[in-house]
Amino acid sequence: MDQYQEEAKKRWGDTDAYKTYEDKTAHYTQAQWADIQGKMDAIMTTFAKYSQDGLAPESLPVQTLVSKWQQFLNQYYYDCNNEMLGALGRMYCADPAFRENINRYGPGTAELLSAGIEIFVNKK
To answer: 39 — phi, psi (to 5°)?
Structure first.
């Protein structure tokens, strides 16, 4: 188990969302994990590009990508309603480990993702 999985289990292991995550991911093959990682990398790389291009968090491309991120989480990991997405968005910047991991795609990626999520969840 890698450090992020250990951290997630420690923080949320007793939640329904974590149980859903365990159920959904328990039978993923290595090929499926590689596909999921590739899809996540594509989304995060696009957030990084948008950050580098100076797109505002409220812009249509960023908001569309936030929606795609939420759909990705729902499809592959757990039920991610707007309340949970908002909490994740805050954590992406507040937690140094998460911020560093997301910003490996490019400086400002976590900040744009977080700000974009805040706007997204407050519009609904």
So the answer is: -65, -40
User: In angstroms, what CA-CA distances link 31 with 36, 38, 43?
Assistant: 9, 10, 19
Q: Count CB neighbours of 6 within 10 A.
A: 11
pTM over 0.85: yes
pLDDT digits (tens, 9 = 90+) for 64-74: 999 999 999 99
Q: Please report the pLDDT score of residue 43 as a whole number.
A: 98
CATH 3.30.428.10 is right for the domain spanning 29-123: no
Domain positions in the chain: 29-123
Angle subtended by helix axes 109-123 and 96-103, to nearest 10: 110
